Amino acid sequence: MVERVHIRRNPFRFRISKPGKSVDSSNLDDFIIHEGQGVIAPYITGTVTVPNEGNVLVSFGRTYSRPALVMLKCASGVVAYPYQVYAVIQPDMASMRIYNTRLGAAQTVTYYVYWNSIGGD
After folding, report:
1. Confidence class of residue 120 from pLDDT cuts 50, 70 and 90?
2. Is residue 120 part of a domain?
3. Could you tell me which of 84, 75, 63, 76 has the C-alpha nearest to residue 111?
4. Per the structure, how many domains does the chain have?
5. What pTM value is reported for the model?
6. CB–CB of 32/40 below 8 Å?
7. Which residues contact residue 39 at a Cβ distance below 8 angstroms, ignoring those fewer than 6 apart?
């Protein structure tokens, strides 16, 4: 049995190894997620106000070869959830649209867009 998950603050480490591989490996090909790969640090972040029953288009400033990984955080404490506050990557993979539905008020949403390097690139 090998250790497959490693999270540490100082020095920063965030690793998940592939099945049967140890998080102590020095080969980056042995990892699903590793702090030395592009999936850990957000590529862009920002904050937008999304009107009730409306949406906002956010440009990534680049075109991804795979859909970006996106996290949303509402200032009101509402959990970003499908069919309430959620993001949809646009077909060109160069932008996303953040939606606010069924909440009855505008939402200030902070977004974190991560480059999706899982599987290559």
Report:
1. very low
2. no
3. 75
4. 2
5. 0.65
6. no
7. 33, 69, 114, 115, 116, 117, 118
